[in-house]
Amino acid sequence: MLKVGITGGIGVGKTIVTRMFALLGVPVYDSDARAKWVMRHNPDLQQELLATYGAATFTQAGELDRTYLASQVFNNPEKLAQLNSLVHPHVRRDFESWAAAQAGKPYVLKEAALMYESEAWKQMDQIITVSAPLELRLKRLLLRDTHRTEADITAIIAKQLSEEEKISRAHHVIYNDDRQLLIPQVLTLHQHFLLAKA
């Protein structure tokens, strides 16, 4: 089975692209959603989080207190890196289990904003980067994330791996720039992956 990673910065449109692949019957692993699930359900990771961030990491009911955890790592690159170093290995193992359960499928997709930062790219056979111009990303994000200012969004983008770096490391690029149609790009890659597996 071919394992294909899909990445891109905030606001490029990874979600719409992965939905198109899903409509073609391709299993899609959403790293962000699965990371949240693993943090709530993996006892080993829960113990690591408790040991690192204290009892307030979980509520009285045993739920992960995401607000508290965010307050511990927000604007602290070292603490954020520490959190990622705890979570990412568990997510990588979760992906391997999930992929094994997709036996018989020609290929699977793993969507991850932090594909390179988390070293998830090492599990992939090929990588797609979704790309969009900065001005268009800002416009989309201001419409989508109404609680954020342009300064907030610019700060998030500045912390992410650059668009150029992601493109240079990818095997394929999908341009979501409102000039090139998305569906033909997705269909072309879909056929490419089916033939690569055949």
UniProtKB/TrEMBL annotation:
One of its GO terms (biological process) is coenzyme A biosynthetic process. It holds the Pfam family CoaE. One of its GO terms (molecular function) is dephospho-CoA kinase activity. Pathway: Cofactor biosynthesis; coenzyme A biosynthesis; CoA from (R)-pantothenate: step 5/5. Its main location: cytoplasm. Its EC number is 2.7.1.24. The keyword Ribosomal protein does not apply. Keywords: ATP-binding, Coenzyme A biosynthesis, Cytoplasm, Kinase, Nucleotide-binding, Transferase. ATP binds at G11, V12, G13, K14, T15, I16. It catalyses: 3'-dephospho-CoA + ATP = ADP + CoA + H(+). One of its GO terms (cellular component) is cytoplasm. It is found in: Cytoplasm. The keyword Kinase applies. Belongs to the CoaE family. Catalyzes the phosphorylation of the 3'-hydroxyl group of dephosphocoenzyme A to form coenzyme A. This is Dephospho-CoA kinase. The gene is coaE.
